[in-house]
Design a protein that fits this description.
This protein has two helices and no strands. It has 64 residues and is an all-alpha fold. It has one domain.
Length: 64
């Protein structure tokens, strides 16, 4: 349950943080769909990494 809550919190934060990057310069003109797909995939991947880091950090800090 905690992981789901962390996903819900970190996904909008990762999308907000990725808005500062200019993915347009990485793609050829007319490749809007591919750019949007990459944007979604990177935001989910970043959210996954941050969520697992926070979850593991909370778990291992309780062991001591």
């Amino acid at each position: 349950m905690l992981k789901i809550a962390l996903y819900i919190v970190t996904l909008p934060i990762s999308i907000w943080a990725l808005e500062s990057l200019h993915f347009e310069v990485l793609f050829k003109k007319g490749r809007v769909l591919q750019m949007k797909i990459l944007y979604v995939m990177v935001s989910f991947a970043l959210s996954y990494l941050v969520t697992n880091f926070l979850y593991d950090f909370a778990y291992f800090s309780q062991l001591r």
